[in-house]
Every structure is written in structure tokens, then in C-alpha cells.
Amino acid sequence: MNTAFHKLKDRIAVVGVGNTAYGNFPHTDDYGLGAEAFRNALADCGLEKNQVDGLGVCRLPYYARMGEILGLNPRWTVQFPAHGRMSAMAIIEAAAALDAGLCDYAALIYANIGRSRRVNYGGEESPGVWDPFGFTSPGAAHAMMFQRHMALYGTTTRQLAEVSVAVRHHACLNPDAVMKQPITIEDHENARPITAPLRLLDYCLINDGAVCLILTTKERAKDLKKKPVLISGIGAREAYTGSSISNFNLNFWHDEVQDVAQQVYGMAGVGPKDIDALMCYDNFSPTVLFSLEGLGFCKQGESGSFVEGGALRVGGRLPTNTDGGHLSNSYMQGWALNVEAVRQVRGECGARQVKDAEVVQFVATTPCSRSIIYTPG
Amino acid sequence: MTTMKPRPKPDVFNKAFWEHANQGRLTVQRCDDCAHSHYPGTPVCPGCLSSKQSWVPVSGRGELLSWVRFHRAYWDGFREDVPYAVILVGLEEGPMMLSNLLGAEPEDLQIGDKLEVAFDRVDAELMLPKFRKAGAGA
Predict the structure, then answer these.
(1) CA A360 – CA A17 distance, rounded (Å)
(2) Residue extents of the structural domains in chain A
């Protein structure tokens, strides 16, 4: 493998993070939410707005309108589509742009108004090749993967429930989170089936909100308000073959995430044993199991037993999605999980803080798999 | 009266698949130069980028790779069918297809069980390639 990208190790820092409240906000729009998250991230790092000369937007309709609203005329702009897999892709692009000097301070803004706009992830809203057979939606694709995982490895829905129960526990410790009622494995087993074997509690939320991260170089980060959080490792691999069955991979993206693991751990100089907390893209609960296997926290097929007994809780063997994730905190499509990683490294997480968290990893196991390792600067 | 189920809306590269299906032939697209087989059809071969490709009949044999049961109707046309199952079939020739199982429920099958194509006529213009357990008869 070409390891030239390792030169980015510890070069770029996340210096500011911000988010809105999460919920149902029909009184505003994507831009209103994005602006609020940007304002909060600026306040977090102490930059003046006009110092921001790089702008990345995701799920916002039009980058120029966002720039107009914020009064920004940057020299670097990228628009990312409204796909869940974009968060770490955008952060890595911004890191490369900062390192190349294409901008000095990059703001990445994500906004989602899917709740008050009643977005549906299937049927008429996303027509596809398989509609005549009644197949649609990312949830159904994950249900097919989990069905196969059960058949091949004996994984059970009670084991799957451990994911939803652990992240709900974290949401109950997070004042920002949408879901505040604890759940049990029995609650998961008795929830309404949507695309069996997946049930309601295996599905991410759909809510409004926005997130912003501000990045700069390690050198410039020294002058800002908070302790910088460095990007120490990155890894990336796509799986486009077979993507006519969207959001599906017959082998759970295992090979791709193994590749990502080799890149991200190799660059950061750490391994799974060194990870203090994992922020794992949890569009659907099975994704967490596939991620644990791909990254090497356990062997393929052993994630079910790995997560048993509350292993993913703060205080467990691998605290995962300490903000409550997409399942119970907020459907910020990976963006809020990266913010949570930064806050864990800073030690700002209050009741859900992982003690002495120094090496925190984000992973998205999707057709564009990505991972980032964050460490203190 | 039931609202219509969604119908295929093939692009220019996949029209032939549905024309063959309406004649009771299951086909995949195969590259004339390197024999790469795939479905859905593509403008160029994903293996060698050749533009010379043909729709060729396949054996109709495959195996059950996975399945999902929809408890939610995403289209009005499926409202009376819930909870209905969609199966993932791995064709002998390589490509994967989503379809429905005829004559059995996937709960009664094992992942890896052999399947064979069984066409399901919707109307004069449309026949859907579905599958049944291999050797189960018509």
C-alpha cells in the first residue's frame, strides 16, 4: 500500500465544534440550522467569522446561499451530497486542502431538516431497479445483511439489541439527545418489525439539526481557545461494485473495512486495543457489528458475543457512540459522532465522559467506508 | 381496486432485459469481448470498458443468499401484501438479483438453498422473473 498519506498524521486539528438542538424545527430551515451550528463552532474556538476561508457543506441545498447567509467569501468550497457516508469523507478532504494551503481555516457545515419535511427513505422518493419486487430502503438492505449474518454465524437479535440498548443508555446521559427513555433487550425484541429481522429500535432517528466542525493546521491551532484535537489517522475504501443493490454488501464490507483499518491504524501507530472510545456510524444497529469485525475488535462472525453484557457502554470494554449515536441521539449522519469524538478527547462529555479518553476513533462502514483517529494535540 | 404496484422503468441499457423477461427468458448482460456478466446492464463493460455487450439467457438456477420481510408498505400497491418477503438470489452465472419467492416462504428455506426462476405474469406487457425452490415443479 502507498502510505504517502501518512504524512498528514497530526498535521491538522479540529479546533471548533458546534451543534444545534436536535428535534423537530419547522420554524426554521436547513440554512437557519447550519448558521446556528456555525455560530456555535466559532464561539467554541474563538475565531472571527471572516478568518474562515474554507467552506464545506453537506445536505445543504446550495453552498453559495449558505455563504451568502454567513457573509463568507472563502477561497475553498466543496459541496457534499446528502448521503450519510459523507462526514469523514468531507473531514479528510478538508484536512488535505488545509495541508495543501488551499485554505487556512475550513468550516464544515451539515444540516438536516428531514424530520419537519417528513423525509421517507424509500418508495416513490427513491425509485430503483428493484421496485417491482417491493424492495426499497436502506433499512431493508441492512435487514438482508443481518439475516445473512444470523445464518452464517448464529448471531441473534438479542445480541443485536445490545447495540440499541447501549447507545440509548448513552443518550440518557446526553442533554442534547432526542431519546431520553432507557430501553431493555426485551423492549427491542418486542418493538414493531419494519423490515424483519430489523425492528423499530434498530433504525436511526429522523430529526432536524445541524453540526459544524472547524479545522486548521496544528500550528494555527495553537492560537485558539481550546486544546486542539489532532487527526492522527485516516483510512478510506469504496465498494461501488454491486451498488445497484444500494447500501448492501454480501460480505458486510468486511474486506473494505479491514483495508480501512490497516490504513488508519498504520498511520496513527495504534491498534484496536488502544482505542478508548469508538464512534461508529449507526444508521442501523447491524452496521455497528459489521464495523467491529472489519476493524478487528473481534473476528468476523464474533461481534454478537463481543457486544454482550453491555460491552459498548461507557465503563464497558469498548464505549461506543457515547452521545447516543444515530439510533438515540440525533440523525446527523456521522457528523455529530465526529463532534462527540472531539469532545471525548477534550474531556467535555460530563456524565458520559470516557475516563482519560485519548485515542478516539470514528468509523463509517458503508459503500464509502472511512475511519478517522483523533488524539489530543 | 388495488393501486398499481411499481413497474420497471428501464433505462436505455436495460430495456432488453424486460423484453426478454416478457418472453419468459431470464438474461444478464455479457461482454462480447471479455465475457464479464452483470445485472443491471451498463453502457460499457465494468471489466474491460468495451461497448460491445449482449443480453444472454442464463440457466435460471441460483441460490438463496438472504431475504427480508417488509412489514411496512412503501407503495400503496404493496399495502395488501404486507408482511411480504423479498429474496436475494445469487445466479449461477454470478450476478445477484432481488426478487420474490413463489410457492414457499423464505422462513421454510435455508440460506444457500437452490432456487430456479419462475416467471410471474402481471399483464400482457410485463412478466416478472421470480424464483421457486429448485425441483419444486410448476
Answers:
(1) 16
(2) 4-117+205-376
Cβ pair A147:B46 closer than 8 A: no
- How large is the ipTM? 0.97
Give the amino acid at A291. S
Report the predicted TM-score, pTM, of the whole model to 2 decimal places.
0.97
Q: Are A240 and A26 in contact (CB under 8 A)?
A: no
Q: Are the C-beta atoms of B85 and B100 separated by less than 8 Å?
A: yes
**In CATH, which of 2.40.50.140, 2.40.37.10, 3.40.50.1000, 3.10.560.10 is domain B59-138?**
2.40.50.140
A366 vs A326: CA distance, rounded Å: 15
CATH number (1.10.357.10, 3.40.47.10, 3.40.50.300, 3.40.50.2300) of A4-117+205-376 reads 3.40.47.10
In chain A, which residues have their Cβ closer than 8 Å to the Cβ of B65?
A: 148, 250
| Structure letter (DSSP) for residue A110 | E
**Three-class DSSP category at A217:** strand
* pLDDT tens figures, B23-81: 999 999 999 999 999 999 999 999 999 999 999 999 999 999 999 999 999 999 999 99
Delimit the domains of chain B by residue range: 12-57, 59-138
Helix (H) / strand (E) containing A233: strand A229-238
What residues have CB less than 8 Å from A91, skipping those under 6 apart?
A14, A108, A213, A215, A231, A338, A372
Residue B138 is predicted with a pLDDT of 53
- CB-defined contacts A:B, below 8 A: 92
Q: Which of A6, A376, A12 is nearest to A217 (CA)?
A: A12
**Shortest Cα distance from A226 to chain B (angstroms)?**
47
Nearest to B70 among A124, A134, A148 (CB): A134
Shortest distance, CA B107 to any CA of chain A (angstroms): 11
For A37-94, give the DSSP string: HHHHHHHHHT--GGG--EEEEES-S-HHHHHHHHT---SEEEEE-S-TTHHHHHHHHH
Tens-digit pLDDT profile for residues A306-336: 999 999 999 999 999 999 999 999 999 999 9
Please write down the HEC assignment for all residues of B26-92: CEEEEECCCCCEECCCCCCCCCCCCCCEEEEECCCEEEEEEEEEECCCCCHHHCCCCCEEEEEEEEC
Active-site annotation of A, residues:
281, 331
- Residue B137 scores a pLDDT above 70: no
Integer Rg of chain B from CA: 16
Do the bridges between strand A76-80 and strand A54-58 make them parallel or antiparallel, or are there none, so unpaired? parallel
Of A148, A195, A197, Cβ closest to residue B111: A148
